[in-house]
Amino acid sequence: MQQDYKHIPIYLHNQVLACLRTHLIQANQILKTYYKEPKISYKPKGSIAGCALLTHWEIQLNSTMLYENKEDFINEVVPHELAHLITFQYFGKVKPHGKEWQYVMSKIMKKEPKVTHNFKIKRNGYIYFCDCQEHHLSPIRHNKIINNKTSYQCRKCGTILKLKNCI
């Protein structure tokens, strides 16, 4: 199986695989199944720590968060996403964090069934302001403003956002 780890240090990728394999073996033993190892891929952006692509039998991990949080990320996110894959295979289409997924997380993965993560997210962007607060805009939104394609208003006070330090 071809793994995508171009931008991940090999020691971290190996730790991801070790965690994945440990929990997969555990699940196969308890459920008396033989699920194969899913593909692991990495995405460098966003606030989502991981994503289970159910019909592709693949787990996507946020490479930036992985690199910044290492073992904590691996021990929390890899079992979480693997539980989604196993839940889908074993129970079919169910609620993403429903009772079936919670069962797989707690009884099979032996992990707390947490829905969200608490990892810090580095935001690459621009600071804009209005009459009441600061706003963090993505480079994409910033470029749309700079190229006169759009403007954004504050949802609270209704004023047009302006780039900070711009006179």
Describe the model.
The protein has 167 residues and is of the alpha+beta class. The protein has four helices and six strands; from the N terminus they run αβββααββαβ. The chain has helices at residues 10-31, 63-91, 99-108, 139-146; strands at 39-43, 50-53, 58-62, 126-129, 134-137, 162-163. The strands form two sheets. A three-stranded mixed β-sheet has the order 1-3-2. It has a three-stranded antiparallel β-sheet with strand order 5-4-6. A hairpin with a 4-residue loop joins β2 and β3 (58-62). It is elongated and about 60 Å long. The termini are far apart. Residues 1-5 have low confidence and may be disordered.
Please, how many helices? 4
Element string (H = helix, E = strand): HEEEHHEEHE
Query: What spatial form do the alpha-carbon principal axes imply?
Result: elongated
The chain-level mean pLDDT equals 88
Please indicate the percent range of residues in DSSP E strands (runs of 2 or more).
5-15%
Strand arrangement, largest sheet?
A: 1-3-2
Q: Please give the alpha-carbon distance between the first and last residues.
A: 55 Å
Low-confidence stretches: 1-5
- Tell me the major beta sheet: 3 strands, mixed
Cα-based radius of gyration, to the nearest Å: 20 Å
Structural class: alpha+beta
Layout of helices and strands:
Blueprint: H1 10-31, E1 39-43, E2 50-53, E3 58-62, H2 63-91, H3 99-108, E4 126-129, E5 134-137, H4 139-146, E6 162-163
Parallel strand pairs: 1-3
Antiparallel strand pairs: 2-3, 4-5, 4-6
